[in-house]
Amino acid sequence: MLQVPTDPRLHMAFDIAAWGAGVALTFVLYRWRLRAVTQRVAGLTDRGYFIALGLGAIFGAYLFGSFDAWRAGLFALSHSLAGALAGAIVSVEGYKLARGIKGSTGIVFAAPLALGIAVGRWGCLFAGLPDGTYGIPWRGPLAVDLGDGVARVPVQILESASMAVFLMLLLWGLWGRRSFALNEGFYWLAAWYGAQRFAWEFFKPYPHLVGPFNVFHVLCAGLVAYGITMVVRQRRSAAA
């Protein structure tokens, strides 16, 4: 069992590192591969796009995070990354529908978001039990002790590793100028994030919503469905 030194203040440090890494990667990718697609997206959108994205992310984050906290008996505001992603998707897709914008506009966010999650989840780990994102008791390999002497599933490490794998695959696709990365990268991010998060949710002590599934299972299933549906639609449009 791995003894993890914890301090809730470390969460903010890793959040800052995640944001910094994401911004740096955005700049590098723009100079390396995404200048043309970024300029195309900029020509299709205006400030309303980013307002919709920001408001949707904030609303989704606190709606789903607080709903889960309420069901757990904690009557306080809470936020969720999965909720933020879902909220941003709904609001941006609504904006695009209203403006008649076709195709993906999110590739510039895909790799930075994957990197941000991979870095930020370590902050969840080192923040310890007060963060509320720990795993259930478990005696398997790589179990972690967050200070209470209980061996737990290292869900934070598993999610970080999952998103790091996605990031490497996406960068490989961008390096080879492959269509799945350039044209479908954000949709694959949504599907990948949803699928891996769906799996790890079985190892978290969140209250069940339907059968063995909690609210984040439902949310992540929606992200997977969205990502796969949009990939299929994108490919059909390209083949037409």
Number of domains: 1
Widest sheet: strand order?
1-2-3
Query: CA-to-CA gap between the ends?
Result: 55 Å
Count helical runs. Answer: 8
The biggest beta sheet reads: 3 strands, mixed
| Shape, principal axes of CA atoms | globular
Let me know the average pLDDT.
Answer: 94
Radius of gyration: 18 Å
State which percent range the strand residues make up. under 5%
Describe this structure in words.
The protein has helices at residues 10-44, 47-71, 81-99, 107-127, 155-175, 179-182, 185-200, 215-239, and strands at 2-3, 144-145, 151-152, 208-210, 213-214. By secondary structure, it is mainly alpha-helical. The protein has one domain (5-135, 157-235). α4 (107-127) packs parallel to α7 (185-200) and α7 packs antiparallel against α8 (215-239). The longest helix is centred in the first third of the chain and has 35 residues, at 10-44. The termini are far apart.
What's the topology here?
Layout: E1 2-3, H1 10-44, H2 47-71, H3 81-99, H4 107-127, E2 144-145, E3 151-152, H5 155-175, H6 179-182, H7 185-200, E4 208-210, E5 213-214, H8 215-239
Parallel strand pairs: 1-2
Antiparallel strand pairs: 2-3, 4-5
Helix pairs in contact: 1-4, 2-3, 4-5, 4-7, 5-7, 7-8
Provide keyphrases for this structure.
240 residues; mainly alpha; 3-stranded mixed β-sheet; two-stranded antiparallel sheet; 8 helices
